[in-house]
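Notes continue from the previous slide.

Worked example: a multi-chain complex. Inputs as given:
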Amino acid sequence: MSGYQALKISDSVYWVGAVDWNIRDFHGYLTKRGSSYNAYLIIADKITLIDTVKAPFIEEMFARISSVVAPDKIDYIISNHSEIDHTGALKETIRRVNPEKVFASKMGVATLSDLLSLEYPLTAVADGETLSLGNKELVFIETKMLHWPDSMFSYLPCEKVLFSQDAFGMHLASSFLFADEIEPAILEYEAATYYANILLPYSPLVLKLLDRVTKMGLVAHVIAPDHGPIWRKNLNMVLEKYRYWASQNVHPKAVIVYDTMWGSTETMARHIALGISDTSGCEARLLRLDAVHRSEVAYELLGAGALVVGSATLNNNVLPRIADVMTYLKGLRPLNKIGQAFGSYGWSGEAPQNIQQMLVEMKVAVLDDPITAKHKPAEDILEACVLTGKKIAQKLK
Ligand code: FEO
């Protein structure tokens, strides 16, 4: 016996995925609590598997499927999202199961054929199309660019289960299957971190999708994502959180991201933070990059109104961790931020100017010329840092 069991999530739907307790890096995102790859089995006249798992976890998925039904009884496989964490096991699953049909969106068919070198003919489904499973039906909802061109949702109206692939997910390995079984603070933190690191660039599309789903009158009693726990209570809470994050509204919070060589840039950062937090109702988060991962910076920036970035100059440029985090943040396309560059230097002093350029390229509204300090910030420079902090706070209020 494997010890792997399918877990029931509604009358005819079972979770048959895998838990990855060990993963710590997801293409640059620190997954400090691991993750899961969720696959779902619908027991209907046409037995249907929704998504698969990352390749190394195929035996866990098959063991869970086998606890409910012999895998070769599966008639249909649906791929909601082509990324390898959900399709790494697809080719081998098709070989073992020999299903009647495999469905994906039009882009999904193209992507899967390329990625997996599939010889099996896939069937493309269109937005709004219905698929009969005999005694039940599934509806497909295209969610292009959330977060890949192929992405789609599948919805089981008779049990009001929405299979949402990456959306509404989080990287969280747990022995609990449902979101309401998990500590709320951890749940909110991991859901927000996931949004900030995966979905933020597509926020305008998230808003459109939420509006569209509301207009369709689609009501879900269960949201079954491809990562992390399943939502079966307080669904409005997660839907409203998505609407809030996607709106990119900001509050009086400044994120001060910096790296320092011998402490001078850190002293400047501390004084800017003092100026901000001296102003009632404003908060400053000091994020020193040798202690804070880039994906934590993305989390802290979600909802913050200011991005303040400092670096010492090394070899005529910014310190490497600043280049790393700024490249990462630029890709996430945060909106509605004001910003400020600062940093110390020994002789040439290019780093603050380079940061300013990066902020401009990110469409951050830069307040002033960079604040710079040669070797060690003198009192007048520290006063300028405090004043800049106050100015940032006034703008944020
Ligand atoms: Fe979980 Fe976009 O794959």
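Summary box: DSSP finds twelve helices and 22 strands in the chain. The two ends are 61 Å apart (CA to CA).
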